[in-house]
Write a structure and sequence with these properties.
about 60% helix, disordered N terminus, globular, four-stranded antiparallel beta sheet, disordered C terminus, mainly alpha, homodimer, 6 strands, 29 helices
């Protein structure tokens, strides 16, 4: 323990070999990650012993103990990033090995693929898509194989979590149960060589949802379940009014024999349930209305209360809950990340310098956290974090870890244009193009061209009134407009340089549309009929017109920003669809066919008859027999139609007439479930847009932040001396490392150009989290303080005390002891 | 000008006769309101002259000048309350007379009645409701009469506003133009003795909207127009995508001859417009889907973008605008009221005591502002305002004017129960009932009874599966349950006393439902068949169950609170309906009849044929011929059906097939208009509920405000000495006044009971404005400061400087001078 003073530039001086980490890893041993066979070497010390002497004696060299700490810190940071709870943190070497095995993209991919395989199987099982039908033993074997894979993954998880934690982890337990069930069923199928009623297949999405890449779907599901209690309350109100009105309707209208909608209480309830969705609207009223004109009052009052009031109330309640849930989610994620950073920081500081992480330690951490990151980027990340420009990262600096880690670094251009280094004449030409391309006149000229093109297409299409038929001749207008777009594109690329051209999404959109149009031209020219739909995408060019107005730009930008969340919501919906499709197939496959349902009131819609009109025989089709559950693809389309709601009762009544009354339960349940999901989607879109609009309103005034339109930008100035010192440090500490080329490249280019410093710019796209951080700036401080206070009161294992009240690392370790 | 000190109890000492008002009324003359003939006495001094000597010489006695000031202050306060702009403030005696004439409930009623009469006329005009048909000369004469009334009202307005202001007032100008047009048309009708195409009748709602009682409708309309610009932007995006997809759809599907939805571009556009509303959903897809299963992708993408994304975006944008507009509206109303109070205050203070309003002045004001208010209530209002308990009202006190003015005053009960004063035995009995009625057990027992009743009704109805038919026998269950409810009601009324029983809305609801049930019993017992629907309302009893859960109580309470706004929104919708109904009647009356529209694709829905089933002849009806525009009531029902949207295209196609393609414009326009109104209704409900929920979340913590659940409560303690002094003051100042009885009553009752003070409690129901004031507490301070600053910078005529910076009344008058 040397009482040395801290030097200011720590990088220039390798650390003292004897100054060990302040906390020891909870793995408690030297551990070589590459060596998978070293599982059981020492399995005794999940809790570090307090004394340094013991420690060194027990765990070998200091370097090894640092390595273990780096690794654990990296794991903490990963857990913070992935929102994994700390109680699943690996606590011993086997756990660590299993953890590492189960936490890489290969494993994740395996999980995803098995999950998808299991779901895709239903394309080939019993009521299969005709072209994909497989024999029973083939698909059962495939299923069994996939289930074995899942079992293997679960074993790894068991090994990593330990039995106790495994049992406590609800999601994993559910998965295990479902797995066992599916296993038994798959074996039964294999043995009997025929599929039985396997409604449990509806549970298959669980395997997909549980995999790492579907975290967003899991979050959505959680949000849906959190919004459920208030939703159900209002739903009950809705159904209650429905029942009251059913009784009223029965009393009022059942004396009219022609009125099939209210002749029994059951019919009355069903009619009013369907009326909730408006799907049978004027029809349900008509018999009563034709008898007594005042009976419309009943329906108007019912719809006003149910549809226009309570349904909106439902949205309001979900929206309100959603708002709160979003905020709480952000808060807990934020605090979880902060706590992960606290943990990691404690593992990275040394006993002598308990308030700062040196570059050496940071580099060690990054070797585990982002093994692929180049030395240069690690160095730049460290510099970006190091805002106080002291030699070490304080905890406060380190708190920005997650904001900085995703940045992509590039040296900032010295000149503005890519052609600045060219000789004079081409420079002038390109400069001219650049000015032209950036001019308002050019832009508006292009808008005019696009508008003319739009009108042209419209008129052209309108002229084709006899119906469009494929012809291999290329219309000249197509060529003219395409040439203009092509020239514009080339001018822009040369004038701005490819990099600048492609950075805004809009240009990328222009580019791909123009490319598609070219492909269309080729298609037309070579007469490849099956691809003619590409030609048809031409009108999409018109979308460019929407760049003109700010509101549209905002809306479309927001749309792109929201796209990932939207996609995950779509996926969530598909998972619900999948479960319902399986149930539907098991019960209703083959039930619907042309000319079925003759006993029902909707028989017309299922009719398919040949009608002689004049001297031709025409097929008069009701087409609704196409909305069936005969295979999973058909089921999906049918369910989509049920989601859109219009005329859904035709499908319901058709199926009901072919099966039992109880089938209605399926359709009604589906309606309510999609109502929940749809309401949440609406609430999400509302919330997201209102949030965005508030955000841009709030951030209109203060300008000059290190953000441009498209993302978050950090800038770091690097001195030549620093680079040299860092390289020196690397060479001293690990002479064998070969991955220094990136940093050496920086050094070389600086020497070549003779500059003493280079500015690097890191950029990443902006996420919802960044917006939230901006929006909740004030509240965040409160949360942090609250968090500090809480962790001070009952320091749980998961949360370390915050820096402000942390007395000393020594105390902390003793405290941790007393808790353990 | 006497330099007297202010004494503390001003009321005990009548004011010095010579201390005149600090500002003189802008009417600038003595003026007897009752004397309508005194219009043109003096018409010179809209601006007061500065010197007191001149003033007295010019305007006669001080008392008269005070009276004029009271009246003008009352007008200012009224303008603040009604949100009338100050530029319409009457500025001379004729104006004042006209103003007074046009601002009382009689005149308002006249306005309303003429407006309604004009609208109701369309029941009797040309395509009239059969039973209400009137001859042309009758309804044209009625119309002319109503129009003359409107013209008279406009003349009064012209007299009050003066020609300049009248021209500047946009709403009035529009009204005048419409009036002239209608006048000419009505005369033409009378001369020709037959109605021509009178689409201009669609403008009639303007007369209704302009009347005083429809202020809420006007505000709604303004809000709708304010939300329009962003709405239209997004609507364009929606329509743009629609057109692009129409072109795509035309190219993709028009080669299929069986596909009538996409065979021309026009059909393609119409199909996709209808698809926006989902009204033709699976059908529009089916022909293409039956040919190629992948064509469903086109429809799924279209619906996902248009229906699920852009439509919600529309809602988001409107909701966001709505939010802002609501806040701005509240702000401007608040500041307008404040400015009105400023104006009034300046007119009420005397030159010697420029910082306070004495009771005498306040009483004078109230005599004009609320002529019906009793002396006691005036006194109590003054006491409630007078928070500093100095003798005078400061401007700060006076700012609470609008919060206090609506209170209903009652002496606070000394005891808790109404039976406290009874002898011992009955007291004990009633006390027992009171305890019983308030006990949880009793409440839950009643819930159980209601639930059992509900199940009973359900089962009973379910048993009646053969259809309900009227029978004059009373089921015994009805009597049993009714007896229980009756006993409960009686117990509650006796236990709580009628006053306490009826104060919460819920009990009122119980009471009326039970009363209805009794009426039902009588109906059943006496066999009055036409009223049997009363019996049928029994299930509404079940609503009582919703008292159990807080969320429902909140929701239903909010519902009641929002009811006025909802009603005004409904009225706004009806006004739109009216205009569209008139246009629809003018163009489409008589167009739809049974078995029409045989050339259209929806002919089935209009068919009415006799079909022989077995040996019976049954009428097979499409019923849609009932959805016509044959008279205004039918039109309203048809329009409601179009609002609900489902199957609306059947009506559209029917009418189109009988008229021209251009009829679609009518239906599409109506759809878009209702979409706007409906979106705004949804946004309103969302906003109101989210606001309420935020409010109750915010106000959960601080308790102990002078508010109970149902309203705002103020308490004032009155000393006997004060009452006596006030009475004295009244007798001194106006010996002839006979309206002192209420205050004398207080004095008498105090003397009788021997108390030296009585506490009075004022209560009023809580309005949205109260909630807003609570929510925006912090921002309000900012607004006030901003307002002060602004009025300091460019003191306009309308706004007086706020108290903090007001140097002296003398300065103020000089300033006003320099501006004028």
């Amino acid at each position: 323990m040397q009482g040395e003073q801290e030097s200011i530039v720590c990088i220039s001086r390798p650390e003292q070999a004897l100054d060990g980490p302040a906390l020891t890893s909870s793995f408690g041993l030297q551990f070589d990650i590459v060596d998978g066979g070293g599982y059981d070497i020492i399995n005794n010390a999940a809790i570090p012993t307090p004394g340094m002497q013991d420690y060194r004696a027990q765990y070998g060299t200091l370097r090894q103990s640092w390595e273990v700490n780096y690794q654990e810190a990296a794991i903490y940071l990963q857990e913070g990033e992935n929102n994994d709870k700390f109680f699943t943190h690996p606590r011993n070497p086997q756990a660590l090995a299993a953890y590492l095995f189960a936490h890489n993209h290969l494993f994740y991919m395996m999980e995803l693929v098995t999950g998808l395989l299991l779901m895709v199987l239903s394309l080939c099982e019993a009521p299969a898509v005709p072209s994909l039908r497989l024999d029973v033993y083939v698909h059962a074997t495939l299923e069994l194989f996939a289930l074995v894979m899942v079992a293997f993954e679960l074993c790894m998880k068991l090994r990593w979590l330990g039995f106790q934690t495994f049992i406590r982890h609800k999601r994993t337990m559910v998965k295990t149960c479902v797995l066992l069930l599916q296993f038994v069923e798959a074996i039964v199928v294999l043995v009997r060589q025929t599929s039985h009623v396997r409604v449990t297949r509806a549970l298959r999405p669980i395997f997909l949802v549980d995999c790492r890449y579907c975290g967003a779907v899991r979050r959505n599901l959680r949000q849906i379940f959190q919004s459920l209690p208030p939703f159900i309350d209002i739903l009950l109100l809705l159904l209650f009014f429905m029942v009251i009105f059913s009784i009223l309707g029965f009393y009022l209208f059942s004396h009219n024999a022609a009125n099939q909608y209210f002749n029994t209480l059951e019919n009355s309830i069903v009619s009013l349930f369907v009326l909730l969705t408006t799907a049978n609207f004027p029809d349900v009223m008509m018999p009563a209305y034709s008898q007594n004109r005042w009976s419309c009052v009943f329906f108007i009052v019912y719809l006003s209360i149910e549809l226009y009031f309570i349904m909106n109330l439902l949205l309001a309640v979900v929206f309100d809950t959603f708002n709160g849930v979003e905020k709480m989610k952000f808060k807990s994620l934020l605090l979880h990340k902060r706590s992960a950073i606290d943990h990691a920081f404690q593992l990275l500081v040394s006993r002598q310098r308990p308030n700062g992480v040196s570059f050496k330690q940071f580099d060690g951490l990054m070797r585990y956290y982002r093994p692929r990151m180049s030395t240069r980027d690690r160095f730049l990340t460290f510099k970006a974090l190091n805002q106080s420009s002291a030699a070490m990262l304080s905890l406060k600096d380190f708190y920005n870890f997650y904001e900085v880690i995703g940045l992509k670094w590039k040296p900032r251009k010295s000149g503005e244009h890519w052609f600045d280094d060219l000789p004079h004449t081409p420079f002038l030409i390109f400069k001219g193009i650049n000015i032209l391309v950036k001019s308002k006149a050019f832009q508006y000229a292009m808008y005019v061209v696009v508008a003319v093109n739009g009108v042209w297409i419209l008129v052209e299409t309108f002229m084709l009134d006899k119906g469009f038929s494929w012809s291999p001749s290329v219309p000249w207008s197509y060529i003219v407009f395409l040439t203009i777009y092509g020239v514009e594109m080339l001018l822009k690329i040369t004038g701005l340089g490819p990099l600048e051209y492609f950075s805004p999404g809009w240009n990328l959109f222009d580019f791909s549309i123009t490319l598609l149009a070219f492909l269309g031209l080729i298609v037309v020219a070579f007469g490849m009929e099956p691809f003619y739909f590409i030609v048809v995408l031409r009108p999409l060019q018109l979308l460019r017109l929407f760049k003109i107005k700010t509101r549209y730009r905002n809306v479309l930008d927001t749309m792109f920003e929201l796209f990932p969340r939207m996609a995950s919501l779509g996926l969530t919906l598909i998972i619900f669809y999948y479960s319902f499709a399986i149930v539907g197939m098991e019960f209703f496959a083959g039930v619907i066919y042309p000319n079925c349902c003759n006993t029902s009131t909707v028989a017309d819609s299922y009719r398919q008859v040949n009608v002689t009109v004049g001297n031709r025989t025409v097929l008069d089709e009701g087409y609704y027999y196409l909305n069936n559950f005969n295979n999973i693809l058909n089921s999906f389309v049918t369910l989509f139609e049920l989601t859109v709601v219009n005329n859904w009762y035709i499908t319901m009544e058709g199926v009901t007439s072919q099966t039992t009354h109880w089938s209605r339960l399926y359709f009604m349940t589906f309606y309510i479930v999609t109502m929940v999901v749809m309401t949440i989607i609406v609430a999400f879109i509302l919330d997201a847009f209102v949030f965005r609009m508030n955000y841009s309103r709030k951030n209109r005034e203060p300008v000059g932040d290190p953000e441009d339109e498209n993302g978050i930008v950090f800038e770091v100035e690097v001195m030549r001396a620093e680079v040299v010192a860092t390289l020196e440090l690397y060479k001293q500490s690990c002479p064998g490392t070969t991955s220094l080329s990136s940093l050496q490249g920086v050094q070389l280019s600086m020497e070549r150009s003779g500059l003493s410093s280079v500015v690097f710019r890191g950029r990443r796209s902006r996420t919802k989290s960044d917006l939230s951080m901006r929006m909740y700036e004030e509240e965040m401080q409160e949360w942090y303080e609250e968090f500090s206070r809480e962790s001070q009161v009952h320091t749980p294992l998961d949360t370390l005390p915050p820096p402000s009240i942390r007395p000393s690392v020594q105390d902390l370790r003793q405290r941790a002891h007393s808790i353990n």
